[in-house]
């Protein structure tokens, strides 16, 4: 029988030795599942969300309180987005700490980092769409950072904001980026990333002693594992969504009067804290870009893992890359925690 | 694959879905109203369905809640819904009153000065305390003369011309004063004035702003009071007045400790004298809205705009009190009587008026030449006669209280 479309998405079989949960952590698959939830819940929200400054926060309240199951859908969208960042981070750590970014997967590593970058932008643009006093500070401070970039800063600011100060043009641009521009980019990168996983030899390279193992997992079996993972992840998400509602605040009345919460979203708190150290361009733009460049350069400038090391956690041969990533993650985590300390 | 995983995952999902179903079932059922003045749906009644309408002049169907209180009209989460409320539980607090009670179509910004209550209240002595602040600062050598410079808050007279010539007052900040007596004055003597926070020990007895007078608390805890009225009983005036006396040596306020049993004892001026009407009627029966809320100018002395005298109702030996026969259906008297319908006024009725022409709309001149007054808060009917033709031996020019009290004060 010729496989149908859905069967075609899965490889007919994969080597059992590649699909060890303790090795892959299932992070990539979980991320794809979260993206699917985000697309479905986001599409549902689009039926009620109004991207105009006067209506945005009110329509978010309508979704949260008045639309049947609207609150649940919004909370699922919020929590999937937060978990997607966490899961992407775990995925990155897994890849570096097992040294599985070496050739031929070097390019796919870059695609993955690009995806993390786009997920951050999606997360931030979605956060701004609330258009309530809770996001005001981050919107004004975050976009003002663009202005500090020499030569092109003011141009970039105008392109993103659509005027001298954030307003209706800003909201519709963030909305278009969130539901279309960034989504298209993310979709392309996701498909490319997954395609490269298969093209580069499957989800993981087993350790040397298992590489000759001929055991394969059938498509049906794989689907079953995936469904169980989805049931568990979905249940966890539902619990989070039911008991910890997504943040919400009164709508913005005066966009430049910063009355609300003076704090960036949690994934940018580390940058917010660095801004207290001095020059906003250096600490707010240059250093984060340098961090990204450093992560991109891991497969290119640091010693790559030796072939016999691949398939195991923490191989000796790419120790330097592991240390670099560990330091970056530790620094970002510490800064995030410090930034949450009340000021004063 | 081991079926055990399937069972565990399915049971987990089932429990989660049941929990969510249970949570959804516990959700508040939204109750919507769309007030005609705003035309925007609001859901406050989902939780506040049992709250009584605040006054017949502010019907819920017309005003709703958000027009006055602000807040997030769509939110069904108490914290969010209340987060943007104007003035917390009191939208009439003077800091926000212009957005709540004020507004072009309400009690401010109208072409009729007499209806511009917000401007009048903001500039009134009840709010500014300007004269006392100037006097005390002058007494302690902080300012060279009695020119009023400060009020309890900064205020500008925007309704020009000004009869008093005082156009602006800065905000009096006791923390900026070096003299300890002025600091003490700031800490102890400002709290009754309308834009001051009610001190902790008096919370629950009254509010600030318009509600200080128009929302008689009557012993309830604050937050449970949802009343606006022009029929304030004297007991409500007493939440500021007659509470005690100033100690000028320490510049502190000494709360009275006696237990007043009779109405007369409730007055707390040990040397004060009172006639029967002064301790039988409610304060609002005689004192007009202009006296209480100001005339729109910044004053320093209460007596500048105290119009009501004994003669206002009783006249003198040579003159009957001023009256007005109601011919205009738009006469202010009709509107005031409509807001607090204790009397049934008709075109052709003759009522008493103050020296400034304000209607004493709860009075009427009777056909036999005597007068009647209906208590605004008590609805009690009083009749009284003019001085003219009585055995009174007064000098009609002297209207000071001590002069009339010489004969008419009640012994106590």
List the SSEs and their pairings:
The complex is a heterodimer of chains A (344) and B (412).
Chain A: H1 5-9, E1 13-15, H2 21-24, H3 27-46, H4 56-66, H5 70-97, H6 106-128, H7 133-147, H8 153-161, H9 168-199, E2 216-218, H10 219-243, H11 269-275, H12 280-296, H13 298-301, H14 319-339
Antiparallel strand pairs in A: 1-2
Helix pairs in contact in A: 3-5, 4-5, 5-6, 5-10, 6-9, 7-8, 11-12, 11-14
Chain B: H1 3-25, H2 45-48, H3 60-63, H4 66-69, H5 78-83, H6 117-123, H7 125-128, H8 130-139, E1 150-151, E2 155-156, E3 168-171, H9 180-188, H10 211-214, H11 234-237, E4 244-247, E5 252-255, H12 276-280, H13 283-286, H14 289-293, H15 310-314, E6 323-325, H16 332-339, E7 350-353, E8 359-360, E9 363-365, E10 371-374, E11 381-384, H17 401-408
Parallel strand pairs in B: 1-3
Antiparallel strand pairs in B: 2-3, 4-5, 6-7, 7-8, 9-10, 10-11
Question: Can you offer a commentary on this structure?
Answer:
The complex is a heterodimer of chains A (344) and B (412). In chain A, strands 1-2 form a two-stranded antiparallel sheet. Chain A is built from 14 helices and 2 strands. In chain A, helix 4 (56-66) crosses helix 5 (70-97). By secondary structure, chain A is an all-alpha fold. Chain A has one domain (5-258): Cytochrome Bc1 Complex, Chain C. With 412 residues, chain B is α+β, with helices and mostly antiparallel strands. Chain B has 3 domains: 3-83, no CATH class; 113-284, no CATH class; 307-408, no CATH class. The A-B interface holds A 58, 61-62, 64-66, 69, 72, 221, 224-225, 228, 231-232, 234-235, 238-239, 242, 245, 248-251 and B 1, 5-6, 9-10, 12-13, 15-17, 19-20, 23-24, 30, 43, 72-77, 80, 83-84.
């Amino acid at each position: 029988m010729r496989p149908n479309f859905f069967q075609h998405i899965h490889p007919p079989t994969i080597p059992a030795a590649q699909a060890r949960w303790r090795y892959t952590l299932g992070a990539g698959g979980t991320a794809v599942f979260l993206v699917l939830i985000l697309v479905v819940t986001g599409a549902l929200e689009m039926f009620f969300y109004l991207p105009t400054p006067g209506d945005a926060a009110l329509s978010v309240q309508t979704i949260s309180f008045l639309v049947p199951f609207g609150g649940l859908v919004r909370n699922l969208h919020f929590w999937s987005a937060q978990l997607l960042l966490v899961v992407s981070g775990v995925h990155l750590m897994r890849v570096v700490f097992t040294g599985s970014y070496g050739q031929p997967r070097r390019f796919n590593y870059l695609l993955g980092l690009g995806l993390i970058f786009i997920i951050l932008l999606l997360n931030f643009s979605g956060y701004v769409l609330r258009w309530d006093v809770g996001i005001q500070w981050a919107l004004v401070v975050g976009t003002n950072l663009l202005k500090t970039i020499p030569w092109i800063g003011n141009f970039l600011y105008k392109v993103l904001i659509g005027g001298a100060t954030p307003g209706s043009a800003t909201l519709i641009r963030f909305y278009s980026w969130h539901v279309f521009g960034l989504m298209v980019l993310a979709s392309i990168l996701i498909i490319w990333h997954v395609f490269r996983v298969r093209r580069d030899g499957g989800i993981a390279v087993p350790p040397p002693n298992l590489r000759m193992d001929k055991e394969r997992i059938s498509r049906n079996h794989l689907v079953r594992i995936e469904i169980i993972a989805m049931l568990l992840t979905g249940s966890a998400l539902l619990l989070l969504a039911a008991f910890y509602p997504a943040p919400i605040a009164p709508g913005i009345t005066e966009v430049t009067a910063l009355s609300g919460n003076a704090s960036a979203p949690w994934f940018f708190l580390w940058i917010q804290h660095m801004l207290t150290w001095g020059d906003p361009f250096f600490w707010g733009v240059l250093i984060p870009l340098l961090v990204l460049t450093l992560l991109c350069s891991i497969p290119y400038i640091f010693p790559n893992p030796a072939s016999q090391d691949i398939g195991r956690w923490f191989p000796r041969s790419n120790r330097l890359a592991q240390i670099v990533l560990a330091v970056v993650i530790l620094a970002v985590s510490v800064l995030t925690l410090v930034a949450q300390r009340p000021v004063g | 694959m081991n079926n055990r995983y399937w069972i565990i995952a399915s049971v987990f999902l089932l429990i989660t879905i049941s929990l969510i179903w249970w949570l959804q079932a516990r959700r508040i059922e939204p109750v919507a109203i769309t007030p005609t003045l705003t035309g925007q749906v609001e859901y406050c009644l989902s939780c506040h369905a049992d709250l009584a309408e605040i006054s017949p002049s502010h019907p819920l169907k017309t005003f709703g809640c958000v027009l006055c209180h602000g807040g997030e009209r769509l939110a069904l989460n108490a914290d969010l819904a209340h987060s943007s409320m104007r003035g917390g539980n009191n939208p009439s607090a003077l800091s926000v009153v212009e957005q709540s009670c004020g507004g072009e179509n309400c009690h401010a910004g109208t072409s009729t000065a007499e209806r511009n209550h917000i401007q009048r209240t903001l500039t009134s002595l009840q709010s500014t305390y300007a004269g006392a602040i100037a006097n005390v600062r002058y007494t302690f050598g902080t300012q060279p003369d009695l020119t009023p410079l400060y009020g309890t808050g900064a205020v500008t007279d925007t309704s020009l011309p000004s009869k008093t010539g005082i156009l602006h007052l800065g905000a009096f900040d006791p923390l900026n004063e070096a003299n300890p007596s002025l600091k003490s004055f700031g800490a102890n003597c400002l709290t009754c004035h309308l834009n001051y926070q009610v001190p902790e020990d008096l919370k629950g007895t009254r509010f600030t702003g318009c509600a200080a007078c128009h929302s008689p608390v009557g012993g309830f805890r604050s937050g449970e009071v949802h009343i606006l009225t022009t029929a304030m009983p004297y007991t409500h005036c007493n939440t500021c007045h007659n509470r005690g006396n100033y100690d000028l040596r320490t510049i502190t306020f000494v709360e009275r400790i006696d237990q007043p049993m009779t109405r007369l004892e409730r007055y707390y001026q040990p040397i004060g004298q009172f006639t029967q009407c002064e301790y039988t009627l409610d304060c609002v029966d005689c004192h007009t809205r202009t006296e209480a809320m100001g005339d729109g100018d910044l004053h320093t002395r209460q007596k500048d705009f105290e119009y009501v005298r004994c003669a206002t109702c009783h006249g003198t030996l040579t003159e009957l009190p001023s009256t007005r026969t109601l011919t205009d259906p738009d006469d202010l008297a009709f509107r005031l009587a409509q807001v607090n319908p204790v009397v049934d006024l008709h075109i052709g009725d003759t009522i008493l008026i103050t020296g400034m022409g304000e209607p004493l709309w709860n009075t009427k001149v009777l056909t036999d030449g005597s007068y009647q007054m209906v208590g605004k808060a008590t609805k009690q009917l009083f009749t009284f006669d003019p001085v003219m033709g009585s055995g009174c031996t007064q000098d009609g020019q002297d209207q000071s209280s001590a002069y009339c009290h010489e004969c008419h004060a009640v012994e106590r």
